[in-house]
Every structure is written in C-alpha cells, then in structure tokens.
Amino acid sequence: MNKNKVFAVLVCLYVLFPLYSQTEITDALGRKFVYKCAAQRVVSLSPAVTEILFAVGAVVVGRTEYCNYPSAVSSVPVVGGFSGATVSVEQIAALKPDVVIVSADMHQRLIPLLEGLGIPAFTVEPRNFDEVYAVIGVLGRLTGREQDAAGVVQTMKTKIEQVQKRVRGKKAPSVFWELYDTPLMTCGGNTFVSEAIQKAGGRNIFEHEKTAWIEVSFEQVLFLNPDWILSGSDHSVTVTANPLWKTVSAVKNNRIAAVDADTVYRYGPRLADAVTALARILHP
Questions:
Q1: What is the pTM of this model?
Q2: If you average pLDDT over residues 53-64, what whole number do you get?
C-alpha cells in the first residue's frame, strides 16, 4: 500500500471513529440520547437527581431552589424552582452545561427550548426501586462515574437487604400513607413510597391501586382499618375532625408516625434510609 492510500485510510478512520465511539442511551420519554464523552458540567432540575449526582461525584453547575442536600449544594447556582414554569432557560444557558437532567413528568415543555439553544436534555422518571437503581446507573454513565454509581446502588441494596433480613417472617402491619388530608390522598402501588413500605415489612392498604397518587374517602380507610397511619414529615396527620377516626386501629393504638419527607419522596440514595426508618417504626 503506497503512502497516499495509507493517508486516505487514516483520514477515514479519523472521520469515522467519533461515529463509532458514540454512546446511545434511551431516556424516560423513549428519546435516543447520543453523547461522545462524559458530561463534565451538569444542570439538575430535580432534588433527587441532584442528590444522585453528588453521590456519584459528578459536577453539578446548576440546580433548583429545592435542591438542598447534601450541604455542598448550597454553593451551586439556582436556575429556578421545580416546575417548568419557574425555570430560567437563560440562566441555564449561561452556565454552559453539557447536559440538563429533567423530569419527564414536569419539564417536557423545557426540552425544545433547551435543545433550541443547543443544550442537550435527558429525562428521568423512575416509578419503583429497580428503576431508581437504573437511573443512578445511567447518570453514572452520562457523567463518567459508572463505578461510583454502581457503588451507590450496592450500598442502597445492602441497607435494604439488612432491613429485610430483620423483618423476614414477621407479620406485615397494614399502613395507610396520608399524603394530604383535604382532600384525603394517598399513594397507590405504583410508587416507590408503597414499595418502601413493603420492603420495610409493611403493607400499603391501597397497594392494589395502579395510579400513583390517588384521592380516597374516609370510609375506605375506615373499612380497611390500617394498623398504622404514616406520612412524610412535611405533613401533619390530623384525625380529630371526624370522631369515627377514633375507631380506626391505628388511632386507637396511637400508631401514627412520620418519616423524613426528603428521604421517602426523593428517589435518591437516601431512599434506602427511608426503608430503614419505616422498618424501625413498623417493627420496633
């Protein structure tokens, strides 16, 4: 092969190599996300995502005002609130991120705005623990922190396995999770809150419901007569409005408790701590 042919082959390899070195990941909306190298500058529009990114050691350059953990996040610039309407695309663009991680449920309207400015957007929206583990792994891949992400997932699984070992064989108390009282709302089975209750050795009385967050009647709760009434720490359970509440097993036995809201409602690494906390309540 003469020098001209060798040169031509090298040029072809140089041009084609980036195409073969690209990595493709499917996001929560089924969109194909293609990238050539790990994201070095990430904007997070979800408190749970922010926790994951910090846990895996990624560089977060922008966050929402609700991203409050870990403490180091306080030095990261704020680009808005959690809803898409409160987020400033201009502020995000000024941070020059390699990618913006957004909620598939909350931020779809932002995607064309971001991508119109040449800013890639990647959506996540896990519904259960397996999907939470998968999201942590994907964010690790996107940021070049795969091993760290695997370590985070393994730590979560180990904590939960320890809880399940302790509660194994014990009777599962029934739980009514009160999300809100006016109207009365709870979580269905297709939520990681319900799954956390199950992993902690309990049983969500509305686990048969496929809708994530549902409105229920007091009569339904009265009929199902839960052993426990639990909630996030952002909500105070009130059972004095209706005197019939006193006939519910959980109320009669003073089994009403709260779990730190940030751990149980966010799908980050601390979700495993929520399982531990729930198990301590249900199986003291």
A1: 0.88
A2: 98
